[in-house]
């Protein structure tokens, strides 16, 4: 397991340590590694992201969807890769930023929610209701604006027991502040395989569409995407420490060398097939034309 920063806003950390704990749920830090709990500011000791790569999200966990229907997480598994994000719908700032950043990235993707992949947005506040989830879903579907997304983007609420089991499996650590009535929490989204295993983490409130596309393709075991995407996945590698894809220089050079050999080989084959006869005939033809012109 790798302990990863929740990317909590610097202002929130300062507010927690200097002013009060009322803004604890509003920020993210910049470093890639979470500090040990014993050196974190008061109110943030249990806040962070601990990567559980390849961890199975428990399929039997019970929730309710935005219509109030009883569901289990397993109802969404086995079909497509998924993006999981944990928020609470009445969050005054940070959760809205995460959802807006996610929706903005999804709007850039050529993949469609509900077609190539699904999204699970789950509230970690057990007091929240399906009606709140429905309101939030309507807001973001309107922003996203693509047909079929309603069947693929699910907004869930659940009991404290289900939420606790889900957040522990995902390594999502948060803390309730009774004085402010808000949560101090991390900011991250997770890409899941169709079977519900955690494939990747992405941190912050803005997400690179290129990384999300490659992450979804890799999580699907290349069942979505194009040949170009396969080439990119060969050249780029997901770095768990940064939550981003980076170029593998050796593979880029290998492909460049291969392309050079292919171009030269094609050129030589063409020259070999045309042969010197064609070149000689071309010279004789041009010579005859010049002689006719001179006459």
Topology:
Layout: E1 2-4, H1 10-19, E2 48-51, E3 62-64, E4 70-72, E5 82-87, H2 94-108, E6 118-123, H3 130-144, E7 153-158, H4 160-170, E8 172-177, E9 182-185, E10 188-192, E11 198-203, H5 209-219, H6 227-235, E12 236-239, E13 244-247, H7 249-294
Parallel strand pairs: 5-6, 6-7
Antiparallel strand pairs: 1-2, 2-8, 3-4, 3-7, 5-10, 8-9, 10-11, 12-13
Alpha-carbon Rg, integer:
27 Å
Strand content bin: 15-25%
What is the count of distinct domains? 1
Distance linking N and C termini: 88 Å
Q: CATH top level?
A: Alpha Beta
Going by CATH, the homologous superfamily would be Glutaredoxin
Q: Can you list the strand order of the major beta sheet?
A: 4-3-7-6-5-10-11
Element string (H = helix, E = strand): EHEEEEHEHEHEEEEHHEEH
Number of helices: 7
Mean pLDDT: 77
Unreliable parts: 1-33, 249-255
Largest sheet: 7 strands, mixed
What is the CATH architecture annotation?
3-Layer(aba) Sandwich
How much helix is in the residues?
25-40%
Tell me the structural class. Answer: alpha+beta
CATH topology: Glutaredoxin
Principal-axes geometry comes out as globular
Number of strands: 13
Description:
There is one protein chain. The protein has 295 residues and is of the alpha+beta class. It has one domain (2-247): Glutaredoxin (3-Layer(aba) Sandwich), CATH 3.40.30.10. It has helices spanning 10-19, 94-108, 130-144, 160-170, 209-219, 227-235, 249-294, and strands at 2-4, 48-51, 62-64, 70-72, 82-87, 118-123, 153-158, 172-177, 182-185, 188-192, 198-203, 236-239, 244-247. The longest helix is centred in the C-terminal third of the chain and has 46 residues, at 249-294. It is globular. 38% of the residues are buried.
